[in-house]
Specification:
The structure is a single chain. With 206 residues, the protein is α+β, with helices and mostly antiparallel strands. The protein folds into 3 domains: 68 residues, Orthogonal Bundle (434 Repressor (Amino-terminal Domain)); 70 residues; 45 residues, no CATH class. The chain has 8 helices and 5 strands. A 5-stranded antiparallel beta sheet has the order 2-1-5-4-3. It is flat and about 75 Å long. The chain starts with a helix and ends with a strand.
């Protein structure tokens, strides 16, 4: 999807209705800065307001994502292209998130090790014991927070595939957090076949 093309299309339709960015934003319950970002091709409208935006502009979602009004004979073809492009973009975003998860894990582990090392050095210098525990506490606190955030990323990015029935799904945060795991493979119950298995993280839905 061409964000600049979509942005120019939104601006064209807005102006045809004699609406300012502020007026359109007010109708959608958002800020005019958000509308400005759309029209400059910086961002796309959120899915939660896309239908309402299209209704206000008198276009379809397919028209919006193509950046032009689509004729009926090309409608199905364009809809399929937009769907495939949306899937591709989600998969790319999921890969980036999973890469971020690794970075967060490494950085938090290094920070914890650094706090532990500094604490040990201070102990050899006969500093008060509380200094060691303070540094260790800071290191552990950030590690726990970062691990929780990393698990959240792993939960929402991509899918888990049941090894029993092949169903791919996004589990709850609780089930991911409490599951036994080896890397990104977790032992969980499938919501479809209700069987427990070691489920691997995958990117695509199918």
């Amino acid at each position: 999807m061409d964000q600049r093309r979509i942005g120019a299309f939104i601006a064209e339709k807005r102006k045809a209705l004699h609406l300012t960015q502020a007026q359109l934003a007010e109708k959608l319950g958002i800020t005019d800065r958000a509308v400005s970002k759309w029209e400059r091709g910086i961002s796309l409208p959120d899915a939660s307001i896309m239908l309402e935006l299209c209704k206000l502009l008198g276009i379809s979602v397919n028209d919006l994502l193509c950046g032009e009004v689509i004729s009926m004979e090309n409608y199905n073809e364009k809809a399929e292209q937009n769907l495939l492009e949306a899937i591709r973009q989600k998969e790319e975003a999921d890969r980036r998130l999973l890469s971020l998860e690794v970075v967060i894990g490494l950085v938090s582990a290094v920070f914890l090790a650094a706090m532990l090392a500094v604490g040990i050095v201070f102990m050899t210098m006969e500093k008060p014991v509380w200094v060691f525990f303070l540094l260790l506490g800071v290191g552990l606190a950030q590690f726990i927070v970062c691990v929780g955030f990393a698990v959240r990323i792993e939960q929402v990015a991509g899918y888990y595939e049941c090894q029993k029935c092949g169903h791919r799904y996004v589990p709850t945060y609780k089930s991911v957090n409490l599951a036994m795991h080896v890397g990104r493979t977790r032992y969980m119950k499938c919501p479809v076949c209700k069987k427990n298995s070691w489920q691997k993280k995958v990117i695509g839905k199918n």
